[in-house]
Every structure is written in C-alpha cells, then in structure tokens.
Amino acid sequence: LLFDHVGIVAGMFNGSESFPSATFSADPNKALCFRINTSGEIIEDVLAGELGFSEYIHNHPEGNMTLSGFHLSLRAGPVTILSEYDMGKNVVTRSGPVAKASAICIEGAINAAKGLDAIIRYESFKNEDAAGNLGAQVKSRITIGAQWFPIRFLEIRPEYRIASSSTPHPGLKDFRDDYTENTFLIQTHVFF
User: Fold this and answer.
1) Which of 30, 39, 86, 146 would staple 50 via disulfide (CB 3.0–4.6 Å)?
2) For the residues of 33-48, what is the DSSP string, one character each?
3) Which tens digit of pLDDT belongs to each residue from 35-89?
4) DSSP code of 60?
5) 167 forms bridges with which residues in the sheet?
6) b/e per residue, 136-169, with b = 16+ CB within 10 A?
C-alpha cells in the first residue's frame, strides 16, 4: 500500500531570496531543502496514489525563512486528483517579507484523449499579515482549462482564471477592497 516507490531528495542552495526584494545575493547562509514521497497502488489496477512532504529552510538575520509542503494525489483510470498544502514563515514576496502565509491547491484532471487533459483547479492563498501590505493580493483562484500535447515536447495550456483579490483601500489604512478578475490566457511550454 503506497510503498511501490519511495523517494528522498536533499539539497543545498545559494538561497537567492533576500529582504526586501527577491534579487540575487551571495548569502553565506545556504538554503537547505529536502523532500520525501511514497507512491504506489492502493487497490491493484484500480486506484493509485502518492503522498509526500517537503521542507525549505533559509537562515536570515531578519528571521529564518521556512516553507513546508504536503501533497497527496490519487489516480483512478482517466481521473487524477492532486492536492497540496503549503505554509511559510518569513516568506519573501514582491510587497516585502510576510511573517506567515499559507496556500492550498486542489486540481482535478480527466484524460479526454491521447495528449489532452481537461483540468479544473482551486487555489487559496492566505497572508496572515495583510494589514499594512501595499500590494494587491490574490486570495483565491479558480482555473478551468486544458493541457494539450499536440506533438512531442510541446505543451499548450489554454486557461480561464477567476481570481478573487484584495487591494489596500485608498483612504483607510487598515482596510482592503475586494475585487474579482477574469483572465483568459494560453501558455506554451517547450520541453527539451
């Protein structure tokens, strides 16, 4: 049960994020990360899954940055469900450092034909220190789209996104205005 494959990965990185912006810095404190996951069949030839955990740690004088993630996926025939929960402390964003933040993503995919998957995804983001943040923040997003591989090494992803966001209120310091943004985009990826 879920032990057909077990993977462990560990790494050390330069840790290029820095306060207050995410620009490259030769930080002497290296960032460490590790990931462990296991996968296999839950019900033989019917249901398979994967379970995993990852951690990223980078020491900073302003406060140690940590990112932790947990993921679970299930596959039954042409249907796949992916889910991930992430949490972070002292995370670097475009608007500056965030004391605590969390995110969740759930995606369902159906293999409609060879090389074509229909997808629907829900994402939710929570910045636990939103007061005083000067930037717009996406709170949640729903994506409806497809992943299409018309030829080998080429992916085309048409997507329609509905994002619920907030932005600082122009007249009231600790208040934020909510709005919805609809976007249609086509992404392409070339793999080599």
Assistant:
1) 39
2) EEEEEEEEEEETTTEE
3) 999 999 988 889 999 999 999 988 877 678 888 999 999 999 999 999 999 998 8
4) -
5) 177
6) bbbbbbebebebbeeeeeeeebebebebbbbebe
